[in-house]
Amino acid sequence: MFRGVIVALVVVSGYLVFEFGRIKAGYDIVEAGNIRQAYEDRILELDNRIVELKQEVALLETNREVDRESYREVEESLSALQAKIQEQRDAIAFYRGIVSPSDGNSGLRVQDLKVTRGKEEREFNLRLVLVQAMKHDRKVAGDVNLSIAGSQGGVDTTYNFDQLLPDDADKKWAFSFRYFQNFDRQLVLPDGFTPERITVEVRSRTRSISSIEESFAWSTSQG
Prior knowledge:
The protein is an alpha+beta fold.
């Protein structure tokens, strides 16, 4: 026990001597404590600032996502509006072609011919729109004959549309309308045949309304 007291006194004495030496050297323990406290306060202040900055960054990220979402919605609305405008323009052009075509000619005409790819490799969907321009006092009736010219094995070849129809398809292609009529037909091209041109013959059975024949380059688009 006595030895323990001696050790304690030595430790305390040593600390006092150490502090005395620091004081003589100009070290103020109170001032040092104040400086340390100031640093600790500054560190706490910086830690709080870091938290605030992280919150600001999170808020900015949220705002940016909101801005992106708003921008995306505006873009979608604009695209939908543009599509609607184009649809209306197409409709106006279509009806203008019926009422007052640009060439001023009346009678039968092919307003639109579009070929799109089908589900199978050699399968195609054909959409034909016929109109009666300018004069609509009576219906026009008749039938359509369509042929596709191209090459097969290096030889010029032409197929009539009834040779290209699926087995269960109706081979008749009649029409009867006053203003316009749409047709959708499915065609299956033979293996090795490369189509180049489509010829559409619209044969009128109505007196004083002439038949027409028009030819188009083969062109397909995705359906």
